[in-house]
C-alpha cells in the first residue's frame, strides 16, 4: 500500500543495480544511499519520476528521483547525500505551484506525506510552529478550537502546504486585511546547503552565521539604496526576487508592525533556493466571528475594475477583508458544473459581465450587514442601483467562496488544446490604474487572436489573467510576444510583474527586467552566500531559463499520442477550440489519435484539488495512503505519460498504469468534485477493457461480471453456497481460487428471492395507462441477495398510491434486467453494452411517456445516467437517463409536488437516532439531499448524515484479499467510528457494499431507506 523503493526491491538490497540499469549511475548511488541511510520512501521508478515531473504549471522536468522523508533527520541526511553526489535538491509540498517551482532535474523531496505536524501553539501570543508539509486547511482545523486561524487564505488552502506557501510568499483572497506570507511569518528554522541548521528571526536577536547573512544583506541594501528606491514596485503584491528590501522597506504594507527587520522574511519567497525548511513560526489571527458578503453584478468588465478603487474605501478599521473578481467566462463555466451551478445562480442579477465579491468580517453581524448596505448605496452613486446580492448567512457565503476558490480550475475545464496559460497572471498595478491596465491588456490579447480569462484580487490590484493559447501549436512564441507587451504595460502603470504566485520557470527571466542589473547581481550575491555550490533549486530566480523554452514544457511541439481504439465513447473531448471565442468544434474532430481518450486524460492540469481531505468523496485511497500515485492527479499523469509513450511503447499496458489504477475504487468523486472534470472511474473502465483484451480475464473478473447471468441458477443452491461464510476452510479455499478475502463474509444468497416471490406488479399496459405510474427497476443485488429492499420499495410505492410495474425482459424468459455495471467493472464493455441496450430498449416506452424509472442500488441505477451514455446507445439512452431516478429522488420529487400526503399520513413516528451513510455515487450525482428529505417525512425522524468518504467496499474492491487492508482503513477514517459512536441508532445505507462494510466492520446491520419507510407504515 505504501510507496516503496523502486522496481519492487527491498530497502537497501540491490538498489544500485536496479536503479542504475533503468536510469544512470548517479541515480543508482543516490537511491542506494537514501534507501540504506534513511527511513524515508525512495521512489525512482519511471512512473514515480513522471508523476513528480509536473506541477500546476505548463512545465514538465523529470527528476532524478523522489524522496519522501519520514522525519527531519531524513531530510537532513538527504540534503547531505545530495551535496555529496552533486545532485540538486528540489523541495515540494502539495505540488500546486503554477510557475514550475516544484519541478526540477534533481532529487524532489516531498514533505507533504509525513513531515506535516503542528509542533506547538501559543494561543495567548497567537503563534504556532509547524512543519513545512502541513496543509493550510489542516492547520486551521487544528486551530479552530482556540478561536484562531492562519489568515493567508489561498484558494488552494485544501492542498497547499505552509512550506510551499512560504516559498512562494503566497497572498490569498484576504491579503487586503491580513497581508501576505511575509507579513505573517515570525521565524524559520532551516538548513543551508552545507547542512548547517540556522534559526532565522528578528535581526537584533540573530547570532552566528544567521547574523552574518543579515549583515551582508544589510550592506547590499545600503549600497543599492538609490536603485531600490527607484526600481522597487511600490505595491504590496510583489514577490519577485529576494526580499532585499527588508532593510529598506518599499511595500505599502511594511513586513513588520514595528518597522524592524526579521531575517526569516529573506527566505519567504525564495522558492527553496536559499535553504531547506525544518519548521516555521507563524503569526495567527483571531477567527472572525461574523461575515457578510455583497455580490456586485456589473454590466461591463471595465466598470467592475474601475469600481474596485472606490469599494476599498468602505473599509472601517479592517472590516473589509476581500474584494474578489469573477468574470463572465468563469460564470459560464461554473454554470456548467453541477456542483457549482445552483450557488452561482443565486448570486446573479440578470446576465452580468463580471461579479465582485465584497466581504466584510468582524465581531458584529449587524454592523457588517450595514456595511453591505453602504456598498449598495455606493453602487447606486456609481450608477448601478439594484446591483448587489446580499449574502448574510454563513452557508451561502461559504458555498460561493468555494466556487471562487475553484476559479482557476473551473477555467481550466475548457475542452480542446487551447487552455488558459499562466505566465502574466500575477502582474499587480495600483488600484487607480486597474481599469486602464486590464482594458489595454485585453487589446493585446485581441491583437494576438486570443482572449483572457480573469479572476482574483481586485482589492489589491492583482488580477489573475490567463490568455488562451495552444501550447502544442505556436503557443510558446505567442506567449513570449504577449509577455513582452504586458511587461510594457506593467512598467507604464508602475506595477509588479510577479505579484503572487512566484517566479519559477515562467517569470524568473523577468526579475532583471523588473529590478535592473545591479539589484539582480545583489540577488545573485545572496544566492552564492547561502548556497555557493548551487545545490538548492538551481535555475530559479538566479540564471533562470527562458520562459518559452519548449524543452521544459508538458506539451512541447514534439508531444505525440499513441493511437488507441477506445471501447467507450470519448468523442466529446476530441475537439478543438477557438481561443478568441472559446467555441469548440464538433465532437470527434479534435485530431486525437486516441479518439478523445487522451484529451480527456489531459484535462488534468495538476491543480491538486483531489488532495483535499474534507467531507467529500474525492480520492479515498489517497486519504489512507497519501501516495501521489493513488491520487486522481497521479493516476491522470500516469495515463498521460502512458498514452504519449513516455512510459515506453507498451502505452496503457505498462505495469505503472496497472499499479496506479489498482486502488482506484471508481467512487466517481472526481466526476463531481474535480473542477476540470477528470472522470477517473470511467477511465478505469476503459483501461481495464484495454488491459484485459490483451491479457485476458481472470476467474474473479468472470465471476463478478457474469453474476447477473448465473444469479437465478445459483440462488437455487443458496444453502450450499452460503456454507462458505460458515466454514473457515471453505473461505480459505475460496480465497486461493478466486482472490476473495477469507476474512470477509460474502453476500448471502436467497433461495426465496424477489424474482420468485410472486410479487404482482402492474403489467406494461396497465402502467402506461395509469394516473400515477412508476417503473421499479430491481437490480441483481437487491433481487437475489437482499430481496427485503425491493419488497419494501414495492410496498412503499403502492402505499403511496402508485401503479408499480416491475421492470423485466420483454421476451424470452421474462426475467430481470441488468444495467451492465458488473461487466463494466471487469472491463467487459461489449457485454455491458448488450445488457445496457436491452435495458434501455425495454425502458424507452416508459421514458417517452415521462414515467419515472426507479432504482434501489445507486451504482446500478446511476449507470443509466452515466456510463450508459458512453456506450453508443444513441438518443434512447439519453431519454431513459432523464427518467432514471433513485428511490429517494423519486419520492422527494413527488413530495415536493404534494403527491405524497397520503403516504405521510400513514407513517408511524421514529424515536431512535438516525444515521445516514451516502453511497459514493449518490454523492457524485448530488443525490444525498433527497435521502435526507424523504427520511424527514417520518414523524420524529432527524436524519444525521455521516460525514464520510468511500466506505471502502466499492463493489468487489473490498472483497478482494489484496485490497482488504486498504478497504478497512477507508472505512475507519470516519464511517465505522461514527456508527460505533451511536450503538442505538438506526443506520441507513442504500449501497449494497456499504451495508456489507458496516456489517463486517462494526457488526451492525444497516438498512436501505426503503426498508425503514416500509417498517414505519
Overview of the structural elements:
This protein has 1017 residues and is an alpha/beta fold. 40% of the residues lie in helices and 12% in strands. The protein is built from 46 helices and 25 strands. The strands form 6 sheets. A 7-stranded antiparallel sheet has the order 15-12-14-13-17-18-16. A hairpin with a 4-residue loop joins strand 5 and strand 6. Helix 1 packs antiparallel against helix 2 and helix 2 runs antiparallel to helix 4.
Highlighted features:
FAD-bd_oxidored_4_C, iron-sulfur cluster binding, 12% strand, 1017 residues, alpha/beta, iron, D-lactate dehydrogenase (NAD+) activity, FAD
Q: Give the low-confidence spans.
A: 1-12
* Largest β-sheet summary: 7 strands, antiparallel
Number of helices: 46
Strand content: 5-15%
Q: Could you give the count of β-strands? A: 25
Q: Within the largest sheet, what's the order of strands?
A: 15-12-14-13-17-18-16
Mean pLDDT: 93
**Rg value:** 30 Å
> Approximately how much helix is present in the residues?
40-55%
Which structural class matches the secondary elements?
alpha/beta
Alpha-carbon distance between the two ends = 47 Å
Shape: globular
What's the arrangement of secondary structure elements?
Blueprint: H1 15-22, H2 25-37, E1 41-43, H3 46-51, E2 65-68, H4 72-85, E3 89-92, E4 107-110, E5 118-122, E6 127-130, H5 136-143, E7 148-149, H6 162-168, H7 175-178, E8 185-191, E9 197-200, H8 208-223, H9 225-231, H10 264-267, E10 276-283, E11 285-286, E12 290-298, H11 301-311, E13 320-327, H12 328-335, H13 341-345, E14 354-362, H14 365-381, E15 388-391, H15 394-405, H16 407-411, E16 419-420, H17 434-447, E17 452-457, E18 462-469, H18 475-492, H19 504-507, H20 511-515, H21 517-530, H22 597-601, H23 620-625, H24 632-643, H25 655-662, H26 669-673, H27 680-695, H28 699-705, H29 707-715, H30 718-721, H31 728-738, H32 764-769, E19 773-777, H33 780-784, H34 787-799, E20 803-806, H35 821-825, H36 829-848, E21 853-855, H37 858-861, H38 874-883, E22 884-886, H39 887-896, H40 901-906, E23 914-917, H41 920-924, H42 928-935, E24 943-945, H43 964-973, H44 975-981, E25 986-989, H45 992-1002, H46 1009-1015
Parallel strand pairs: 2-4, 3-4, 19-20, 19-21, 21-22, 23-24, 23-25
Antiparallel strand pairs: 1-2, 5-6, 6-10, 7-11, 8-9, 8-10, 12-14, 12-15, 13-14, 13-17, 16-18, 17-18
Helix pairs in contact: 1-2, 2-4, 8-21, 11-17, 17-18, 24-25, 34-46, 36-38, 39-42
Amino acid at each position: 500500500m505504501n510507496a516503496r523503493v523502486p522496481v519492487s526491491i527491498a530497502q537497501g538490497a540491490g538498489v544500485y543495480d536496479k536503479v542504475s540499469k533503468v536510469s544512470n549511475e548517479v541515480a543508482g548511488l543516490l537511491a542506494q544511499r537514501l534507501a540504506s541511510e534513511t527511513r524515508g520512501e525512495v521512489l525512482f521508478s519511471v512512473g514515480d519520476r513522471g508523476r513528480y515531473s509536473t506541477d500546476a504549471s505548463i512545465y514538465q522536468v523529470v527528476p532524478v528521483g523522489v524522496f519522501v522523508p519520514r522525519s527531519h533527520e531524513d531530510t537532513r541526511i538527504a540534503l547531505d547525500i545530495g551535496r555529496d553526489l552533486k545532485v540538486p535538491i528540489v523541495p515540494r509540498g502539495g505540488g500546486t505551484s503554477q510557475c514550475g517551482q516544484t519541478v526540477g532535474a534533481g532529487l524532489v523531496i516531498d514533505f507533504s506525506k509525513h513531515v506535516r505536524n503542528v509542533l506547538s501553539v501559543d494561543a495567548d501570543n497567537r503563534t504556532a510552529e509547524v512543519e513545512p508539509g502541513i496543509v493550510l486547511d489542516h492547520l486551521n482545523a487544528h486551530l479552530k478550537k482556540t478561536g484562531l486561524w492562519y489568515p493567508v487564505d489561498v484558494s488552494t488552502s485544501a492542498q497547499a502546504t505552509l512550506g510551499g506557501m512560504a516559498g512562494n510568499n503566497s497572498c490569498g483572497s484576504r491579503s487586503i486585511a491580513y497581508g501576505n506570507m511575509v507579513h505573517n511569518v515570525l521565524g524559520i528554522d532551516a538548513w543551508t546547503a552545507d547542512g548547517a541548521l540556522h534559526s532565522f528571526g528578528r535581526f537584533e536577536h540573530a547570532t552566528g552565521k544567521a547574523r552574518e547573512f543579515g549583515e551582508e544583506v544589510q550592506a547590499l541594501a545600503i549600497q543599492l539604496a538609490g536603485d531600490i528606491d527607484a526600481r522597487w514596485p511600490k505595491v504590496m503584491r510583489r514577490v519577485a526576487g529576494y526580499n532585499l528590501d527588508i532593510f529598506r522597506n518599499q511595500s505599502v504594507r511594511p513586513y513588520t508592525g514595528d518597522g524592524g527587520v526579521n531575517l526569516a522574511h529573506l527566505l519567504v519567497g525564495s522558492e527553496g533556493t536559499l535553504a531547506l525548511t525544518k519548521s516555521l513560526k507563524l503569526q495567527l489571527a483571531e477567527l472572525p466571528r461574523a461575515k457578510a458578503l455583497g455580490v456586485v453584478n456589473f454590466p461591463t468588465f471595465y466598470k467592475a475594475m474601475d469600481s474596485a478603487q472606490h469599494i476599498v474605501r468602505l473599509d472601517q478599521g479592517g472590516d473589509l477583508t476581500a474584494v474578489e473578481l469573477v468574470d463572465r467566462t468563469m460564470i459560464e463555466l461554473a454554470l456548467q458544473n453541477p456542483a457549482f451551478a445552483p450557488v452561482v445562480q443565486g448570486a446573479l442579477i440578470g446576465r452580468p459581465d463580471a461579479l465582485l465579491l465584497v466581504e466584510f468580517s468582524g465581531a458584529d453581524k449587524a454592523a457588517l450587514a450595514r456595511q453591505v448596505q453602504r456598498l449598495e448605496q455606493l453602487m447606486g452613486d456609481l450608477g448601478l442601483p439594484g446591483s448587489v446580492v446580499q449574502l448574510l448567512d454563513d452557508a451561502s457565503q461559504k458555498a460561493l467562496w468555494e466556487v471562487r476558490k475553484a476559479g482557476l480550475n473551473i477555467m481550466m475545464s475548457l475542452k480542446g488544446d487551447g487552455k488558459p496559460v499562466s505566465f502574466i497572471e500575477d502582474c499587480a498595478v495600483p488600484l487607480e490604474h486597474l481599469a486602464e491596465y486590464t482594458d489595454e491588456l485585453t487589446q493585446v490579447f485581441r491583437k494576438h487572436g486570443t482572449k483572457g480569462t480573469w479572476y482574483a484580487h481586485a482589492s489589491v490590484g492583482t488580477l489573475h489573467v490567463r490568455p488562451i493559447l495552444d501550447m502544442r501549436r505556436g503557443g510558446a512564441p505567442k506567449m513570449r510576444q504577449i509577455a513582452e507587451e504586458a511587461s510594457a504595460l506593467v512598467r507604464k502603470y508602475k506595477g509588479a510583474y510577479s505579484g503572487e504566485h512566484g517566479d519559477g520557470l515562467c517569470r524568473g527571466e523577468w526579475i532583471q527586467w523588473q529590478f535592473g542589473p545591479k539589484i539582480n547581481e545583489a540577488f545573485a550575491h545572496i544566492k552564492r552566500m547561502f548556497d555557493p555550490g548551487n545545490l538548492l533549486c538551481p535555475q530559479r530566480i538566479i540564471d533562470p531559463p527562458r520562459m518559452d523554452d519548449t524543452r521544459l514544457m508538458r506539451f512541447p511541439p514534439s508531444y505525440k499520442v499513441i493511437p488507441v481504439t477506445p471501447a467507450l465513447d470519448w468523442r466529446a473531448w476530441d475537439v478543438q477550440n477557438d481561443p478568441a471565442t472559446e467555441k469548440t468544434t464538433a465532437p470527434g474532430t479534435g485530431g486525437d489519435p486516441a479518439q478523445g481518450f487522451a484529451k480527456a486524460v489531459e484535462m488534468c492540469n495538476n491543480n491538486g484539488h483531489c488532495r483535499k481531505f474534507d467531507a467529500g468523496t474525492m480520492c479515498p485511497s489517497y486519504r489512507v495512503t497519501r501516495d501521489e500515485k493513488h491520487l486522481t492527479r497521479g493516476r491522470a499523469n500516469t495515463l498521460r505519460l502512458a498514452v504519449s509513450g513516455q512510459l515506453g511503447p507498451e502505452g496503457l499496458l505498462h505495469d505503472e498504469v496497472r499499479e496506479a489504477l489498482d486502488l482506484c475504487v471508481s467512487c466517481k468523486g472526481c466526476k463531481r468534485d474535480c473542477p476540470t472534470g477528470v472522470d477517473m472511474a470511467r477511465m478505469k473502465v476503459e483501461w481495464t477493457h484495454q488491459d484485459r483484451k490483451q491479457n485476458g480475464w481472470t476467474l474473479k473478473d468472470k465471476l463478478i461480471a457474469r453474476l447477473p447471468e448465473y444469479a437465478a441458477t445459483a440462488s437455487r443452491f443458496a444453502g450450499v453456497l452460503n456454507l462458505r461464510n460458515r466454514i473457515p476452510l471453505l473461505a480459505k479455499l475460496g480465497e486461493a481460487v478466486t482472490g476473495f478475502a477469507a476474512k470477509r463474509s460474502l453476500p448471502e444468497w436467497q433461495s426465496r428471492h424477489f424474482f420468485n416471490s410472486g410479487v404482482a406488479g402492474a403489467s406494461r399496459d396497465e402502467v402506461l395507462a395509469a394516473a400515477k405510474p412508476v417503473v421499479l427497476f430491481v437490480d441483481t443485488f437487491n433481487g437475489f441477495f437482499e430481496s427485503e429492499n425491493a419488497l419494501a420499495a414495492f410496498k412503499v410505492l403502492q402505499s403511496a398510491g402508485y401503479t408499480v410495474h416491475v421492470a423485466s425482459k420483454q421476451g424470452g424468459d421474462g426475467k430481470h434486467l441488468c444495467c451492465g455495471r458488473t461487466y463494466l467493472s471487469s472491463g467487459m464493455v461489449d457485454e455491458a453494452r448488450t445488457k445496457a441496450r436491452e435495458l434501455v430498449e425495454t425502458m424507452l416506452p416508459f421514458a417517452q411517456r415521462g414515467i419515472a424509472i426507479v432504482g434501489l442500488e445507486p451504482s446500478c441505477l446511476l449507470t443509466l445516467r452515466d456510463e450508459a451514455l458512453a456506450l453508443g446507445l444513441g438518443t434512447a439512452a439519453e431519454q431513459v437517463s432523464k427518467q432514471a431516478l433513485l428511490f429517494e429522488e423519486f419520492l422527494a420529487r413527488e413530495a415536493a409536488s404534494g403527491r405524497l400526503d397520503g403516504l405521510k399520513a400513514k407513517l408511524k413516528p421514529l424515536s431512535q437516532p438516525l444515521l445516514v451513510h451516502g453511497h459514493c455515487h449518490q454523492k457524485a450525482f448530488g443525490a444525498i439531499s433527497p435521502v435526507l428529505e424523504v427520511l424527514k417525512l417520518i414523524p420524529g425522524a432527524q436524519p444525521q448524515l455521516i460525514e464520510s468518504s468511500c466506505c471502502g467496499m466499492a463493489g468487489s474492491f473490498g472483497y478482494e484479499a489484496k485490497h482488504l487492508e486498504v478497504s478497512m482503513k477507508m472505512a475507519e477514517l470516519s464511517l465505522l467510528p461514527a456508527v460505533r459512536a451511536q450503538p442505538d441508532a438506526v443506520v441507513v445505507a442504500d449501497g449494497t457494499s456499504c451495508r456489507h462494510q458496516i456489517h463486517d466492520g462494526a457488526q451492525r446491520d444497516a438498512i436501505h431507506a426503503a426498508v425503514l419507510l416500509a417498517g414505519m407504515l
